[in-house]
Amino acid sequence: SLVWVCIAFFIPLFVGEFCTIPKSLFDPGPSRYLGSCAYLTFHTNALGTLYFGFTIAAELTTSAVLDSLLMRTFPLIFTLGMFLTPSYYLLEYPNPHNKQAKQIALDKGFTF
Question: Do the beta carbons of residue 12 and residue 45 sit within 8 Å?
Fold first, then answer.
């Protein structure tokens, strides 16, 4: 159901913002000023939450304008969703800087 898809995009937003290690520990540059907004994962999950939230609204209101907008933005949402996970595990996960930052976080008492 669309509600569960919307929730599936919202949960990482919530957890990433309130339940994880401070972003400035991993990337003290941009994340010091922008926090989670510095990362593509935040934007992808925010857009996915909005998209599927609007999809639910379009179903409930039978709005032709909203339905047309959703049809036009589907390729963007699909592409971001399909790009994000493989790119994270190919580019960011094995990154030595990321592994070093995780070790520093573990030494400071954070758990994953």
Answer: yes
